[in-house]
Amino acid sequence: MKCEKCGFEQEVGKFCGQCGAPIPKEETNKEQFSRREEVPGQNTGETVHTEHLATTDHTYSNQTQPSVGEQTNTDAMEKVKHTSKDYWAFFKEYLKHPSRIFTNREESFKNGLISMAIVAFMMAVSSAMLYGSFMDMAYYYNGPSGLSIFGYTLVFIAVSMVIILFILFLVNQLFGTAYSFKEMTSVYGAHLVPVIIVIAAAFLLILLKSFTIGGYLLLISFGLVVTTFPIYLISSLLTRQSKNLDPLYGYLTYLVLMGVAFLIFVVVLMDSTFGRMLNQFY
Asked: Where is this chain compositionally biased, Basic and acidic residues type (predicted)?
């Protein structure tokens, strides 16, 4: 630094050490800038460049990293895709060979529940569509809505399958193989796969205005779910590994328990919401 008034040179300071005149600010800034350049790691160009890279990386990371909500949606979609693929493989396998479930029952609990849910939902939708067609053809009608029919049918089918599943499990524990409740769910759900085909055919026929054939197929599918397949299952399970009593008595016990359970179930329904719905038909 050099004083413009007397020419005295010095390294630092804002005033001349000889005459006391103020040293111009530009000279002071130049001196400080040159001193920073001499210190390792304090190069201004490097500092600016580093800060720029940090800012760029931060911006890029904000753009590429998904938010918490997006990540949750992505994980949910992946789970849905995985479950769909798993159930489709389950569906194809047991549509061809339903009896194979007796050896693979431990791994199919979730798919068995999905089969039961599909059957209940499709039967409820088909019943509501069939009921809606009846309402369209009726000249004068004052009854429950189609949505009510869907809800009542869904509850009725779902509760019926739970009752059947529980009695299958109970009788099998007493007289046959000691399957767990999850294993019994897998076995029952796998044998519902052919029923899904029948219900799908009924749904398409009702959709195409073929109400008579569609209605008959819907009744057939209900009979398969509630009577035919459960009776086949209890007979097969009891003869595979029977306990002290003969399988015939286990089979008769199943029929008695089913009759009593459904009688109680129907009485409860007639005395509750389902009964009020029946009264609306008048």
From this structure: 26-39
